[in-house]
Amino acid sequence: MYNSIEELEKSIQGCKKCKLCNNRTNIVVGSGNVNAKIMFIGEGPGADEDIQGKPFVGKAGKLMDMALQGLDIKREELYIANIVKCRPPSNRNPEADEAEACMEYLRNQVLIVKPKIIVLLGSVALKNILGNEYNITASRGKWIEKNGIWYMPTFHPAALLRDDAKKIYFWQDLKLVKEKIMEL
Ligand code: URA
Question: In the predicted model, what is the mean pLDDT of the chain?
Answer without folding.
Answer: 97
